Amino acid sequence: MRIVLGVSAGIAAYKAVYLARLLKEDGHQVDVIPTESSLEFVGNATWEAVSGRPVSTSVFEGVEEVRHVRLGQEADLIVVAPATADFLARVRAGMASDLLTTTLLATEAPILLVPAMHTEMWRNAATQDNVAVLRDRGIDVMEPAVGRLTGADSGPGRMPEPDQIRAEVDLLLHQEGGPLAGRRVLITAGGTREPLDPVRYLGNRSSGKQGLALADAARSAGAQVTLIAGSMEQQPGPELACIEVVSVGTTEQMHAAVMSRAEQADALIMSAAVADFRPADYAHTKIKKSDNGASPIITLERNPDILAETVARRNHRGTGPKVIVGFAAETGDEKSDPLELAQLKLQRKGCELLVLNRVGENLVFGLDSTEIHILASDAAQQQLQGFEPDHVIGSKREAAALVIQRLHQLLAT
Length: 413
Description:
GO terms for molecular function: FMN binding; metal ion binding; phosphopantothenate--cysteine ligase activity; phosphopantothenoylcysteine decarboxylase activity. Pathway: Cofactor biosynthesis; coenzyme A biosynthesis; CoA from (R)-pantothenate: step 2/5; Cofactor biosynthesis; coenzyme A biosynthesis; CoA from (R)-pantothenate: step 3/5. This is Coenzyme A biosynthesis bifunctional protein CoaBC. The chain has helices at residues 13-25, 44-51, 67-74, 85-93, 99-105, 119-123, 125-136, 162-174, 209-220, 251-261, 306-317, 338-349, 378-383, 396-412, and strands at 2-7, 29-34, 77-83, 111-115, 140-141, 145-148, 154-158, 184-189, 194-197, 200-202, 224-229, 244-247, 267-270, 277-279, 300-302, 323-330, 353-358, 369-376, 390-395. By secondary structure, the chain is an alpha/beta fold. The protein folds into 2 domains: 2-174, 3-Layer(aba) Sandwich (Rossmann fold); 184-412, CoaB-like (Rossmann fold, 3-Layer(aba) Sandwich), CATH 3.40.50.10300. Strands 12-11-8-13-16-17-18-19 form an 8-stranded mixed sheet, sandwiched between helices. The protein has a 5-stranded parallel sheet with strand order 2-1-3-4-5, with helices on both faces. A two-stranded antiparallel ribbon has the order 6-7. Strand 9 and strand 10 form a beta hairpin. The two termini are 21 Å apart. The mean pLDDT is 89.
């Protein structure tokens, strides 16, 4: 999607830098239009670096492209954050005094204004009247947050956090659908815990962050998302309030949840770190240390292979997810590179895509950054003409956006 991000002259402009980054990570093209005065807070170099696009404040640049009209015509959405009291007044009056206000007049795209100002300015009758008129015209004006303002002041008028604005952006874009509109996507996330006794379990270090990023990216693309959540360090935020969340504990519980829902899904993404083994015997009372110092012997047994079983059932029945994405967390060993192990796993499991995570000490687990390779089966490579294995080093949001992009390409064929 093409989003124009307008920035007016408020100190909250620094928050818009992070908003631009979030929108870019979601796969949108972001054109930033700051007002001339807003450059006192955040300069052009920052906006161009974050958006990867040229930035201008003047209607006299790019005249040969009629840029002040083209930006508004080509936009899928225009967001202005922060929108100061002065800016709201100028928009209400229909002024075209700079590139940003001219672009707003030249668009038929949805418009989202995000106010930020001191409490007294927000409560002023003139501002409230301007907001009411703008809303009557069909412009979406967010309510400001309540909290710390410039200096020692506190109250309503604070710019909402970028994540909240991003969620509002998603809602507006989804009114027009998305690449996965009408699709059902089932995603597993987090780790599983296998009880040993009433107080102990076998588990892993999965935080669930990658699964949440995938759920958010799928939702942003318009999909109906069900998240099967195991043990998670981070819980779904307000931006995921519209998705179904199914909480599970053990691998067997996750297996049951997937099997009961996969038949209705168009795609399954198995990003959860599922325990391969569980204790063969559960102790109904806490295991005590023996007086002679001997260590207890714990016998393990195999857990169900959810990924392989789902692929096999789909292939046998001819129903279920058209696209199945597996994940492989590999450290490698003295004989094999992680990428080699992932290739073997892709062939063994039979899924369309396999995402390799290189894991280990201080790698991936619990972090916002990651390194992934996306591998495709032979059949999927034929569908993705010219496919080369993807390699991403960046945020988990960026990784999720690429996975969802590949998933969409396969569903569209």
